[in-house]
Amino acid sequence: MITRRHLLAGATALGGASLLPSIAYAKGSVAAAIYPGTWEEAFRAIVAPALKKKDSIDLELQPLFAVDQVAKAKAARGAPPFDAFVLDPGPRITAIEGGLFEKLDAKKLTNASKLPAGLVDEWGVGVNAQVVGIAYNPKKVPAPKGWKDLFSDPWVSRLGITGFQTTFGTVSLIEIAKVFGGSETNIEPALAELKKVLPKIAAVGQPAAMPGLFQQGQCDVIYTNTQTVATLKGRGVDIEFVKPETGAITFLTTLHIAKGAADADNAYKYIDLVAGKEVQEALTKPPYNFVPVNKDVPLPDYLPMKSLDEMSSFIRHDWAKINPLRAGWIEKFNKEMAK
Amino acid sequence: MRTMTPPSPGGATSPAEGGGKRSVLAEWQLALPLALAFASIFLAPLLMLVGVSFFNDDKISQPGFGQWAKFLGDPFSYKVIADTMLLGVKTVGATILIGYPLALVYLDASPRVQKVLIFVIVMPLLLSVVVRTFAWIVVLGREGVVNTVLMQLGLISEPLRLLQTELGLVISLTQIEMPLMLLPLISVMSRLDPNLRDASAALGASRWRTLFTVIVPLSMPGLVAGCLLVFASSTTAFISQSVIGGVRLIYLPLLIWQQSLVVFNWPFAAVVSIALLISVLTVVSALSWLGRRSGGYVHG
Questions:
Q1: B 22-61 residues with CB below 8 A of A?
Q2: Nearest of A181, A210, A205, A207 to residue A193 by alpha carbon
Q3: What is the per-residue pLDDT across A235-291, written as a single tens digit (0 to 9) for each?
Q4: For A207-223, how does the pLDDT look when each residue is reduced to its tens digit (9 = 90+)?
Q5: Counting C-beta atoms within 10 Å of the first and last residue's C-beta, which end of chain A has fewer, N or C?
Q6: Is the ipTM of this complex over 0.85?
Q7: How far does CA A315 lie from the centroid of its chain?
Q8: Do B141 and A326 make contact, defined as CB atoms within 8 angstroms?
Q9: CB of B261 within 8 Å of any CB in chain A?
């Protein structure tokens, strides 16, 4: 006869047994913020399966732009909605100032030695380099030589610009300011020149809309990064990248562990995996077209350099100086450009 | 709240009335959880928004009126408010101009055609506004459908500039917001007694006179509801405003986004948000008042 005790014991044993495979298999998860679009697609297709295979960790990706990640983590006040950030230099400094990162222990990263000097610091790891310059449609306009060309025909009437909302927009406008006598902290000359040619300019758009506007022929010259150029080219768009005569711009995209992360150990494994040769090499291939940072990964041929060492000659910017000025620049851009 | 307890004859307090008082209390208590839920979901965030706007610094540590002074002291703010409200008015005007005749067509259609029309009207709502907005880039672009057709017909020699103009934005918003105008309009017009039109005709009124003296006044509540929805939605349509309008056309939602997510100046973003809220509420209240008056006129 089956007694209540037998039934309970049986049910407990059955329940316990059903948990066993998952305990033995999954070693937990890690929640990582990721840029929407190409980054999200690439990390879902390459990083998530690789992390599951190597460390039995489930990667939960949360698509958020850099500024959204910082805003969410700030609002969460110590209980971050994800374990790892992916950030550009500007938001990275904002996050450091806001105390949003856990300090990084480089000893926990097996791939740290494979990255060029300076890519691993106490706050995070550089896992991708972005190279910014000028993109143009070779069937519509000749190749411009540099930033100054954008302000004369035939380029100016086909030019599409964005403001200071993004990293690539900000650094491009700084470089434009420099060729007209400005500096990293003085963008006035760029705004003055833009105002002169404003009625001619083909598009003043939001950063996210620019690839679409280029694809639809609304503009034929934009400032953007090599990754966007390679992605559009892969879709059959007539587009070429030009390294301006004053030099291409570069900045790093970095991964960080959030302060108060629920799965900090898994976040280390995730970051280490992204910096590793296999993942970096896979991310470099089309349709993702990332610029790798691991020294063991060969560089793709569409990049304006033959080796990672060459990137040291590219233009970099000091975001500690730029960040405090950026709000004023955005306000000024709004007022100068408003109809 | 009224109770269902009938009054006792002679005004004397009866046990039944005592029971009525208890039921009043019980009903009031029943509404409490909902009231608390409303307060926590709607009122608390709004109060927090107002609270945050009274801090001078982006770290939200120094209380003061600095952000309000900055916003109210800048003529650019008034221009942006006026442009935002004007965009709403233009979109409302365009949706009425196209939507009202469409609603009349619906009114005269057979039940089978009406079903098809309702499907066509509701279908855009099932698509993401992002998809609809990006579709407008393809339509209005330099090499888009409109310019290609006009060029091939020989009507223009140079492509028209439609994207990143207010005209292009109003055109796209008119299509995007059209279901919000049509649905309340059709809902009210469908309830009109068809005999009213016959009666109007029998009394010698022309079709135009019937339209303006019978149908339009009776459909006014639906029209006002549609105007409210289209106005509130188009003035806050951040995606369409920024993608179709670009960065040269600056409206309040763009300022809020820049200040909260790019610059992280939450107090200033709160000030702009409150300005948007007040501006939209003012126009919406005026429309509601108009709606109540028109309701009184029709039925009174």
A1: none
A2: A181
A3: 899 999 999 999 999 999 999 999 999 999 999 999 999 999 999 999 998 888 899
A4: 888 998 999 899 999 99
A5: N
A6: no
A7: 17
A8: no
A9: yes
